[in-house]
Design goal:
The protein is 39% helix and 26% strand. It is built from 3 helices and 3 strands. The chain has helices at residues 2-9, 41-45, 50-66; strands at 20-25, 29-35, 70-76. The protein has a 3-stranded mixed beta sheet with strand order 1-2-3. β1 (20-25) and β2 form a beta hairpin. A probable RNA chaperone. Forms a complex with KhpB which binds to cellular RNA and controls its expression. Plays a role in peptidoglycan (PG) homeostasis and cell length regulation. This is RNA-binding protein KhpA.
Length: 77
């Protein structure tokens, strides 16, 4: 899932080398923490959160069949 998120996000940003995804997993959920350069945060979120919502939709769809846990994507600094 981390590679999927990186593949989606890297073409969108000006600093692709600073894109980093960390995983926080426990018994019933997985949280993917997406870190980008502060100047790229707006590009990843998009107007009214549309890009972030699209990223989350793709990841949730892929993770739903892959994992049997609740999946979240957080965009952080």
């Amino acid at each position: 899932m981390q590679k999927l998120i990186e593949t989606i996000v890297k073409p969108l940003v000006d600093f692709p080398e600073e894109v980093r995804v960390e995983t926080d997993e426990n018994s019933n959920r997985i949280v993917y923490k997406l870190f980008v350069h502060p100047e790229d945060r707006g590009k990843v979120i998009g107007k009214q959160g549309r890009v972030a919502k699209a990223i989350r939709t793709i990841v949730y769809s892929a993770a739903g069949s892959h994992h049997k846990k609740k999946t979240y994507v957080d965009i952080l600094d």
